[in-house]
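RECORD TYPE: inverse folding
INPUT: structure tokens
STRUCTURE:
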């Protein structure tokens, strides 16, 4: 039995407030594997080995936006290595971003080994963009998915402080724009003024705005052939993201602030 299997079996039902019946969780809050994809299975195994050997202090959990911090060119618009190396130098950090993951897939990873061999001091969570893609899960169930992720992380890593980032702006379609605005408003309300400060919410949307609109130049997708809809931050935007969260990371890890803008 894989770690977390008992949680997997128990997860589909939540008691309603009356206690008289149960209601099924939305798919966005149900753990789902992608082990049928060879590359995803290989990355999951590789990250499991990395976690076994490194005992990290800092986790990054997310989708391709997080995974992209591992890119190292050769094109300048695909070269994230310099800023990532500067940010993580002297820190035991692991990138647990998986391309295409939605909230359900991150939840499965958390329940199946990616939090079982460590006691990190800090975790940065950025997830939800793919819920609004081909899955077409709107803001309300996505909120439940993110709440479930945070609750599961806190239950498994009770001493770990969590920085929850808002879903980043993109240029896909008006429905996605509306869901992104709605989920971030929900997250800001849900995680505002946490008494224990174990969860901090931060919205990085201003990094991607110019003259009141989402800036196409902030994304690497425009450089692809053919171009994709702007979704993934380019290296300059990624650097700004890391600079924006650096004060929280430095304070949580108790080390020096190494990035300034």
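DESIGNED SEQUENCE:
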């Amino acid at each position: 039995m894989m770690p977390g299997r008992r949680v997997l079996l128990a997860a589909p039902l939540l008691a309603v407030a009356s206690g008289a019946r149960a209601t099924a969780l939305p798919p966005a809050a149900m753990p789902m594997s992608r082990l049928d994809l060879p590359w995803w299975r290989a990355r999951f195994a590789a990250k499991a080995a990395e976690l076994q050997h490194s005992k990290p202090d800092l986790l990054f959990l997310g989708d391709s936006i997080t995974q992209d911090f591992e890119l190292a060119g050769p094109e300048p618009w695909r070269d994230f290595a310099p800023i990532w190396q500067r940010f993580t130098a002297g820190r035991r950090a692991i990138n647990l971003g998986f391309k295409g993951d939605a909230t359900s897939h991150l939840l499965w990873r958390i329940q199946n080994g990616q939090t079982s061999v460590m006691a990190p001091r800090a975790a940065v969570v950025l997830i939800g963009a793919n819920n609004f893609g081909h899955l077409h899960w709107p803001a309300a169930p996505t909120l439940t998915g993110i709440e479930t992720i945070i609750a599961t992380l806190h239950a498994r890593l009770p001493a770990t402080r969590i920085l929850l980032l808002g879903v980043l702006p993109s240029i896909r379609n008006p429905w996605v724009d509306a869901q992104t605005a709605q989920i971030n408003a929900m997250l800001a309300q849900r995680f505002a003024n946490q008494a224990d400060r174990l969860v901090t919410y931060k919205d990085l949307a201003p990094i991607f705005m110019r003259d009141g609109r989402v800036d196409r130049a902030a994304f690497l997708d425009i450089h692809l052939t053919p171009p994709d809809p702007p979704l993934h931050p380019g290296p300059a935007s990624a650097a700004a993201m890391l600079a924006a969260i650096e004060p929280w990371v430095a304070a949580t890890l108790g080390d020096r602030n190494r990035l300034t803008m």
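NOTES: The first helix runs from residue 5 to 10.
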